[in-house]
């Protein structure tokens, strides 16, 4: 943490990249301001209670990392600080209950599916519920797809070119299980055998995001043990999960599993990166021309530095015209559990993103993260301009299956 604090020279390049600063215009709601606040608190000059509102409003989108000319590792500062603060701060009984609900449902697909079905019935009572719970109800789809269990192995089509292990995810399995199946089919079409380890679970990213480091380590330990060593890569298809797994080394710093966590993190690749490196089997054209806007999920573009590969895959599909979104570097407001904890601010940020998407004239949107998909879909609907939103793998899958 000290290294990240000392690296900041307070130049201000991060200000224009920070969504909360753009909305609120407050220095303490910028990365530069938050670093100053954390420094003051760590040195004993500022009480935790005074600076927590500003820290809580941070999306953790890492746009500041991309913009920073000094290489400040903001992610290495905000996540440990939130964990440290969570152990010290006093929360109201209502806060504790709502956080318990988030902590004990979102990382577990079965529980989340049950909670989502119950939540749809509770919508008429939304005004009586705590703000985070009401925000969660707003984000739920009108209908929940049935569970689509995954096999333990999905065979390659034709000659096997590679063998990978897939993280199945948690919320995504409940809200959009078709993403995993599209990923399996696309990988198989490209000669990739996929192992889906049955002992895996949530990657722990959501827990890290809200400062629950102990739970994050418990969840991560399960994955350290579950994923096999005899694969070419550990593949993820959710930007938040991939980013969190890349941070396993930071999560386990000083722990007995530190070396194993670092080694694990180095094996993790977003599916778009893996396919781009492997070389894509040319997909057939879509039956009809499609103008597609690509949204950079923050934890793919900023946290993992992956921007070119998804675009290259989508441009490889004949009949697809890819258009860029203005201010593409700005977050959509999803940011893990942010749109549950800061719903008003998340909505303002999300609607700004939605207006920029509408301005492209695109017929649909593609992205690489379930949280972004849910947030953007909600904000486009609020503006009366719903559009189809697909995962990058779903678009590729449509192309491969177009002539079948």
Task: From the structure above, extract its key features.
single chain; 4-stranded parallel beta sheet; alpha/beta; Fumarate Reductase Iron-sulfur Protein, Chain B, domain 2; Rossmann fold
Q: What order do the helices and strands come in, and which of them pair?
A:
Layout (H helix, E strand, L loop, with lengths): L1 H6 L11 H6 L6 H12 L5 H9 L6 H5 L7 H12 L6 H13 L3 H13 L9 H9 L13 E2 L7 E5 L4 H5 L2 H12 L2 E4 L9 H5 L3 H14 L6 E4 L2 H8 L1 H4 L6 H10 E3 H8 L11 E5 L3 H4 L6 H8 L4 E4 L14 H4 L1 H17 L4 E4 L2 H13 L6 E3 H9 L4
Parallel strand pairs: 2-3, 2-4, 4-5, 6-7, 6-8, 8-9
Antiparallel strand pairs: 1-3
Q: What's this entry about, in short?
A:
With 404 residues, the protein is of the alpha/beta class. It has helices at residues 2-7, 19-24, 31-42, 48-56, 63-67, 75-86, 93-105, 109-121, 131-139, 171-175, 178-189, 205-209, 213-226, 239-246, 248-251, 258-267, 271-278, 298-301, 308-315, 338-341, 343-359, 370-382, 392-400; strands spanning 153-154, 162-166, 192-195, 233-236, 268-270, 290-294, 320-323, 364-367, 389-391.
């Amino acid at each position: 943490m000290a290294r990240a604090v000392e690296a900041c020279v307070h130049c201000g390049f991060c200000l224009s990249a920070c969504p909360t600063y753009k909305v609120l215009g407050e220095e303490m709601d910028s990365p530069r301001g938050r670093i100053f606040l954390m420094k003051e608190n760590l040195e004993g000059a500022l009480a935790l209670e005074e600076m927590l509102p500003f820290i809580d409003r941070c999306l953790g989108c890492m746009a500041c990392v991309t913009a920073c000319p000094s290489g400040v590792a903001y992610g290495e500062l905000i996540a440990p600080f939130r964990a440290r603060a969570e152990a010290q701060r006093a929360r109201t009984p209502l806060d504790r209950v709502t956080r318990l609900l988030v902590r004990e449902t979102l990382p577990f697909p079965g529980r989340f599916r049950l909670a989502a079905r119950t939540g749809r019935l509770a919508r008429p009572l939304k005004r009586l519920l705590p703000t985070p719970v009401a925000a969660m109800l707003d984000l739920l789809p009108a209908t929940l797809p049935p569970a689509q269990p995954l096999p333990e192995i999905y065979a390659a089509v034709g000659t096997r070119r590679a063998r990978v292990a897939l993280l199945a995810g948690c919320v995504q399995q409940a809200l959009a299980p078709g993403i995993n199946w599209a990923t399996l089919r696309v990988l198989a079409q490209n000669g990739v055998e996929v192992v889906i380890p049955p002992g895996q679970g949530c990657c722990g990213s959501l827990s890290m995001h809200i400062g629950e480091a102990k739970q994050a380590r418990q969840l991560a330990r399960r994955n350290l043990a579950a994923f096999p060593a005899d694969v070419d890569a550990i593949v993820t298809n959710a930007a938040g999960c991939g980013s969190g797994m890349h941070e396993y080394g930071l999560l386990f710093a000083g722990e007995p599993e530190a070396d194993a966590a670092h080694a694990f993190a180095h094996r993790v690749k977003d599916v778009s990166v893996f396919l781009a490196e492997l070389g894509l089997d040319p997909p057939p054209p879509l039956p009809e021309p499609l103008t597609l806007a690509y949204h950079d999920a923050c934890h793919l573009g900023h946290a993992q530095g992956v921007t070119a590969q998804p675009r290259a895959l989508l441009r490889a599909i004949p009949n697809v015209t890819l258009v860029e979104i203005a201010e593409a570097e700005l977050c959509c407001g999803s940011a893990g559990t942010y749109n549950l904890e800061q719903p008003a601010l998340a909505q303002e940020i999300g609607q700004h993103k939605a207006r920029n998407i509408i301005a492209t004239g695109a017929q649909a949107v593609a992205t690489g993260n379930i949280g972004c998909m849910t947030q953007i879909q909600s904000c486009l609907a609020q503006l009366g301009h719903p559009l189809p939103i697909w995962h990058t793998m779903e678009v590729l899958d449509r192309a491969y299956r177009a002539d079948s």
